[in-house]
Design brief:
With 194 residues, the chain is α/β, with parallel strands linked by helices. Helices cover 21% and strands 14% of the residues. It has a single domain, classed as Alpha-Beta Horseshoe (Leucine-rich repeat, LRR (right-handed beta-alpha superhelix)). About 6% of the residues have low confidence.
Amino acid sequence: MRNPCIWCCLVLLTLVVCDSCLHEERKHLMDICDAFLWPAGNPPDWSSRDCCRWERVTCSSITGRVTALDLDAAYPSWYGLLNCSMFLPFRELQNLSLGNAGIAGCMPGAGFEVWSNLRQLEILDLSENELNDSSIMPLVGLASLRSLFLGGNAIKNDFIVQRLSKMKLDILDLSWNGIFGNISRGMASHLKFL
């Protein structure tokens, strides 16, 4: 560039933009905070302006967008029904942890199938919930997933296991479920951990 002043301004602008979360995502994080019941009644401290510095939130250092949310042990306030559409604004979300959250299913019209729009979601932890065979079936459509943790739920049907094992997962955790039947080695040969 010919003018060093313009170059310096561009660098400073980039640093300012990339050092904090997007206003739109901050607003949606606050909605999530209000939509969950937190352990011991203590929601996370999400009072600072920069949501990238909030506990349970991780952002990209390049784009400032939310890349990971840790909502373990936070219960959906809709009687155990999760509104999956509330996570759709986080277009760069890669890791979502909703373990031990008392999730029994999803709200009508806002089930797991809407997460197919989260094209970067690679790690999903739904362990230690109350999900059953029919409630997890839409997870089969999440093509970007590489790790899926479903241990400690109410999954019983080996047909569901067969469908899940056909996904391009590296890790599939189904421990502590009531699954009966056998899983053939060939069916799960691409998994690094089952």
